[in-house]
Design goal:
Layout (H helix, E strand, L loop, with lengths): L7 E2 L5 H14 L11 H14 L1 H4 L1 H17 L4 E7 L5 H12 L3 E8 L2 H11 L11 E2 L8 H4 L5 E7 L7 H11 L5 E7 L6 H8 L6 H14 L6 E9 L5 E9 L3 E5 L2 E5 L4 E9 L2 H10 L2 E8 L5 E8 L1
Parallel strand pairs: 1-4, 2-3, 2-5, 3-4, 5-6
Antiparallel strand pairs: 6-13, 7-8, 8-11, 9-10, 12-13
Bound molecules: S-adenosylmethionine.
Length: about 325
């Protein structure tokens, strides 16, 4: 059939599972980040925010570290076929630059754009088609936080180059890193991009980047989830705080604090929020290069090379399995 696209949907994103995850997020008062990328409105708001604040979009030096990491990965890969797996691919811009470089080096390229959002994997596929033949592109929808056995779903015949850009801040490291490590075989490579806290003083560094989160575009994006469920803006306040997490990590967290009662009815379940209750909408762990090295090593991932921006706010790490 002309113009149709085959997209593989992993059970973690089947409608009944997504519904259960939504109810679970409300019961636990901790929102799975995937619900901030659900609707067209949320995607548009996130793209506006990304455009305004992402160093990869606004800082030539940051774009430069990605280019260097792509060139280094391509130089190390000796096989003639490479399969890029873009985990949390978003619009696929970075993955496509990587694929282009691999192709220029004479590699036959394959691509699996993987994201929780079907719209994102289709956008990433479209972007990548300038470089990858249609038959070598395998869009894959899954929730990396809850999917079981993703290493069985993402098996490739050729050497895999897995990209994990801008993803680590929004996951509990002890939950996502074992999954990520399970995807990397001894011959494969991982390109890992992390948002960092600048400077020598970790706490001061996290404080310094707080305005990148506590701003009107981010507030607007995060609030969309609650407003779509029936919460009113005047029901409370969205506040950003710095919290201590496991592994000596700090994160910026956003909670909505109710200043008046609100009741939500979803799937015949009632969720009652009282004045003084709160719900966690978002968190973002910030690492330092030492913390990235330590945590990757804990999961048997060895860093071969690394690139850090002059601002010290972003780093890319080329890794292999120990
Ligand atoms: C910060 S963006 C990063 C996009 C891209 N990698 C980049 O660096 O530009 C996060 C992406 O992760 C996706 N995402 C969020 N939660 C996810 C989950 N649980 N499983 C898979 N993808 C997820 C979002 O849809 C979004 O495209």
């Amino acid at each position: 059939m002309p113009n149709t696209v085959k997209v593989t949907i992993q059970p973690s994103q089947f409608p009944e599972k997504v519904r259960r995850d939504l109810l679970e997020s409300l019961r636990r008062r901790r929102v799975n980040h995937k619900f901030h990328y659900d609707s067209l409105r949320q995607t548009q708001k996130w793209l506006a925010l990304h455009q305004a604040y992402s160093p990869a979009r606004n800082d030539a030096d940051c774009r430069g570290i990605y280019e260097k990491s792509f060139a280094a990965a391509a130089a190390r890969i000796k096989t003639c076929r490479v399969h890029v797996i873009g985990l949390g691919c978003g619009g696929g811009q970075k993955d496509t630059r990587l694929l282009k470089l691999l192709k220029h080096r004479g590699k036959e390229v394959f691509y699996t754009p993987c994201d929780v959002s079907a719209a994102m994997v289709l956008t990433a596929r479209q972007t990548a088609l300038s470089v990858v033949p249609k038959g070598n592109c395998f869009p894959f929808v899954c929730d990396l936080a809850t999917a079981e056995d993703i290493h069985k779903c993402l098996v490739t015949r050729h050497l895999s180059l897995v990209t994990f850009f801008g993803m680590i801040p929004n996951f509990e490291p002890q939950l996502i890193l074992p999954k990520l490590a399970s995807l990397i075989r001894p011959r494969d490579f991982l390109l890992f991009g992390a948002n960092l806290a600048p400077g020598n003083n970790y706490a001061a560094g996290v404080n310094r980047i707080l305005p990148q989160y506590d701003n009107s575009l981010t507030r607007d994006w995060l609030m969309t989830f609650l407003l779509d469920l029936g919460v009113d803006r005047r029901d409370g306040d969205l506040r950003f705080d710095i919290e201590n997490g496991r592994f000596n990590l700090k994160r910026i967290a956003a909670h909505f604090h109710f200043r008046r009662a609100r009741q939500l009815e979803i799937d015949s379940e009632t969720f009652k929020f009282k004045r003084g209750d709160s719900i966690q909408l978002f968190f973002s762990y910030r690492y330092t290069p030492e913390r990235v090295r330590g945590i990757l090593n804990r999961y048997d991932l060895k860093i071969c090379e690394e690139w850090i921006t002059k601002s010290e706010e972003e780093g890319v790490f080329l890794c292999r399995k120990l």
